[in-house]
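Design a sequence for this backbone.
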């Protein structure tokens, strides 16, 4: 990638960092962009150039269009999208991996845990940067692991596939996502953990969302619920409750209000018995169920939209929830507000979503659709709204 060397880029980055509300420190920008702190400092001081990839990550973290940071105002390449073919190549030989190094099990655990945090934080640039090599290494590890370690390595591979899938799905590469989901199912069978299989069934629903095959997706979730372990432990209750949450949303997309209500009630009953946490890679608990209540209301549309607004009036997602889940709440809320004639509120919700998880927000199709609608509704173009629309590539 070519590097932009104009010192003005660094000054513009420093400027936008200073006007973000609340103001971002250099460390906070470095964390959000997955860039070393020293690199941020040198770029802002004009001591080093910045590649298109790094500029894209910084722009996402600041919530601005990368063209606003460039000296030539030209388009910046999207590193995450360009790196997707590397993910495809990494999984092509999953059953006959090439020879290569394999780290210790402890090191692999740490690498997979870091990837899971990127997934929950919607840091897709970090995922596509590191996951191809990690997936190749894990497939080698699975084929060479002693019997006593094989189940754990398979579980690590499932979790790594899930992180890769999150980037593929959110970036619109639905065929690649579907392939990764099938590999998750294959590796989960190797792990032999029914709770892990339930978590994979939760993720598999993406393929039905992408295909708009909502009735088939609901059937698949019913089968997963039948196969899930009895809710006799906290992890089992969370697994079953997560499946009910997912079933409620896809029932909503199928416009089956009765099924959505039943599944949402079942999810709430189980959520009231556990603490909000991440179980087998999925956030579940009372707060997650509230967010899914909003999602169900928006999916059903019509008179149900008022239920989404009612939730938002009495509750906001706490900062302890994963960024992707929190930003999803505001994206869903923005759509409910827009449908209810609350254009200003909808735009405010979209800006909050961008602040929480810029890469998730920027790549969400509803955000682009709603930003386009907001631009059409406002007779006098707002510079802020125009900038937001350009940032998320709204037409």
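Sequence:
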């Amino acid at each position: 990638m070519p590097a932009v060397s104009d010192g003005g880029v660094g000054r513009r980055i420093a400027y936008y960092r200073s006007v973000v509300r609340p103001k971002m420190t250099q460390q906070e920008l470095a964390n959000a962009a997955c860039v070393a702190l020293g690199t941020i400092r040198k770029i802002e001081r004009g001591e080093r150039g910045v590649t298109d990839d790094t500029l894209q990550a910084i722009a996402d973290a600041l919530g601005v269009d990368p063209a606003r940071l460039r000296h030539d105002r030209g388009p910046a390449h999207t590193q995450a999208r360009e790196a997707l073919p590397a993910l495809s190549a990494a999984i092509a030989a999953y059953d006959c991996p090439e020879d290569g190094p394999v780290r210790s099990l402890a090191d692999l655990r740490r690498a997979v845990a870091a990837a899971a945090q990127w997934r929950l934080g919607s840091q897709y640039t970090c995922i596509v940067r590191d996951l191809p090599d990690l997936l190749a290494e894990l497939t080698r590890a699975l084929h060479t692991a002693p019997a006593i370690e094989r189940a754990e390595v398979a579980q690590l591979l499932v979790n790594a596939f899930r992180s890769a899938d999150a980037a593929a799905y959110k970036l619109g590469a639905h065929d690649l996502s579907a392939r990764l989901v099938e590999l998750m199912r294959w590796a989960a069978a190797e792990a032999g953990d029914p709770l892990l299989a339930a978590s994979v069934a939760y993720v598999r629903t993406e393929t039905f969302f992408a295909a708009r095959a909502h009735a088939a997706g609901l059937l698949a979730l019913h089968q997963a619920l039948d196969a899930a372990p009895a809710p006799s432990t906290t992890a089992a209750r969370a697994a079953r409750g997560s499946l009910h949450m997912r079933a409620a949303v896809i029932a909503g997309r199928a416009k089956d209000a009765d099924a959505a209500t039943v599944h949402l009630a079942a999810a709430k009953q189980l959520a009231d018995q556990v603490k909000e946490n991440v179980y087998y890679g999925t956030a579940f608990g009372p707060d997650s169920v509230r967010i899914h209540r909003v999602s169900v209301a928006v999916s059903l549309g019509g008179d149900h939209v008022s239920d989404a607004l009612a939730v938002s009036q009495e509750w906001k997602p706490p900062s302890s929830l994963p960024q992707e889940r929190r930003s999803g709440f505001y994206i869903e809320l923005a759509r409910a507000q827009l449908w209810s004639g609350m254009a200003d509120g909808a735009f405010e919700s979209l800006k909050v979503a961008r602040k929480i998880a810029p890469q998730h927000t920027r790549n969400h199709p509803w955000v682009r659709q709603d930003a386009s609608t907001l631009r059409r509704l406002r007779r006098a173009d707002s510079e802020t709204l125009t900038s937001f629309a350009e940032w998320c590539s709204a037409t």
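Residues 1-5, 73-77 have pLDDT under 50 and may be disordered.
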